[in-house]
Specification:
This protein is of the alpha+beta class. The chain has one domain: Kinase associated domain 1, KA1 (TATA-Binding Protein), CATH 3.30.310. It contains four helices and seven strands; from the N terminus they run αββαββββαβα. Strands 1, 2, 3, 4, 5, 6 and 7 form a seven-stranded antiparallel sheet that branches. The radius of gyration is 15 Å and the shape is globular. The protein starts with a helix and ends with a helix. 26% of the residues are buried.
Length: 136
């Protein structure tokens, strides 16, 4: 990891996943399911989860917006995209509400935890597979 990434990681209240993230655990994760199935499972998962409140669900855009108030407070945006039939990508963006300049890694740890929970509900097929799945 680069020095700049390490600094950004330390002094940040925001963490998000992406296709080619420098950190393996924060790469886009792919599941063997349809977009509708993933959206439904995520909806059920967060409706039954204490400390989480669904603010908005957009099936057409594949986004779920949540407020969380567990040990920390913040906002989560989940993006769900079906790349191919039964190959669906899930990304998280987490912002932590804190008066300090950093959340001390809480947003990053929350993403790790959420991906573990999603992995238990859906059939995980890999991380960062975008280039491979979009080939003709």
């Amino acid at each position: 990891m680069s020095f700049m990434y390490t600094l950004k990681k330390i002094f940040s209240k925001h963490t998000e996943t992406k296709e080619k993230h420098i950190e393996e655990k924060l790469r886009t994760r792919y599941y063997k399911a349809t977009k509708d199935q993933v959206m439904k499972d995520l909806d059920v998962m967060f409706r039954n989860k204490k400390g989480y409140e669904i603010k908005s669900i957009s099936d057409t855009h594949g986004e779920i917006v949540l407020k969380y108030n567990d040990r920390k407070k913040g906002l989560i945006v989940i993006t769900v995209i079906m790349v191919k039939p039964f190959k669906t990508a899930v990304d998280f963006s987490v912002d932590t509400d804190t008066a300090l300049f950093t959340d001390f890694g809480a947003s990053r740890k929350l993403i790790y935890q959420l991906y573990k929970e999603v992995d238990k509900k859906l059939h995980f097929i890999g991380t960062g597979l975008g280039d491979e799945l979009t080939k003709y």
